Amino acid sequence: MFSGNYIRILPIVSGTLCSNPHNMSNTRIKLPIGCLGFLIIPMFLFGQAGPQPGSTTGKTAGKLDKSKVPRIVTEMFNKQYPVKRFVNWYGYPQFDNGSSWYEYDPSYYSKNNPENYVVEFTHNDTLDKVFYTKTGKKIAIHRNMSAALPDKITHAIRTSIYKTWEIGGDKEEIFKDNKTDRITVYRVTMREGGKRHTLYFRKNGKLLRIINSA
């Protein structure tokens, strides 16, 4: 979704990582999805200028007053979620909500002229985050997971370079439309020492993307 100073495309074999995550500090990583056979793709570095999110510099911006959120957005939210508690709004800059609709980084929350809006709230005793464009179009739903990850994702992690890393507690199930949506992505945070990587998977264990957060 966002590019820092560098994007690193990792070598993978048939969709499985075959690189060392310890050498990927302070980079944003984007994995190619379609790899043929056992073709190993070399590593490249591309310098790209990413968006500059308002007043945030690695820290989460403060909450956005509801009065600053376009009425069309709040009306759509209230219509879709009539029963909710503990509602908080945040601004979010422009991003590729097409191919990268499932990805987000709270360090990009911003109060300054946001192009999109994130609302965090409790719904059916579950913490949800919903992304809207400023015209009220829903982009994605992020739902905190308390249940175990699908078996194929757990297997993919335990047979990868992350097999010795700890799976963080902040797992998410991400839907493009609603909880019955077949297009579901799982967000998993992996930790080892001071390192923190965020992995995005399909339910079948296919790795979509890795972001090095620390």
Question: How is this structure best described in words?
Answer:
By secondary structure, this protein is mainly beta. The chain has two domains: 6-50 and 146-212, no CATH class; 66-119, no CATH class. It is built from two helices and 14 strands. The protein has helices spanning 71-80, 151-158, and strands at residues 6-9, 12-13, 16-17, 28-29, 44-47, 85-92, 116-123, 126-133, 138-144, 166-167, 172-175, 184-192, 195-202, 207-212. Strands 1, 4, 5, 6, 7, 8, 9, 10, 11, 12, 13 and 14 form a twelve-stranded mixed sheet that branches. A two-stranded antiparallel sheet has the order 2-3. The longest helix has 10 residues, at 71-80. The protein is globular, with a radius of gyration of 18 Å.
Mean pLDDT: 76
Catalogue the unreliable spans.
Answer: 1-15, 18-59
- Cα-based radius of gyration, to the nearest Å: 18 Å
The secondary-structure class comes to mainly beta
Helix content: under 10%
> What's the helix-strand series?
EEEEEHEEEEHEEEEE
Give the end-to-end Cα distance, rounded to a whole number of Å. Answer: 17 Å
Beta-strand residue percentage: 25-35%
> Number of helical runs?
2
Number of domains: 2
In total, how many beta strands? 14
Give the topology, please.
Elements: E1 6-9, E2 12-13, E3 16-17, E4 28-29, E5 44-47, H1 71-80, E6 85-92, E7 116-123, E8 126-133, E9 138-144, H2 151-158, E10 166-167, E11 172-175, E12 184-192, E13 195-202, E14 207-212
Parallel strand pairs: 1-4
Antiparallel strand pairs: 1-5, 2-3, 4-14, 6-7, 7-8, 8-9, 9-11, 10-12, 11-12, 12-13, 13-14
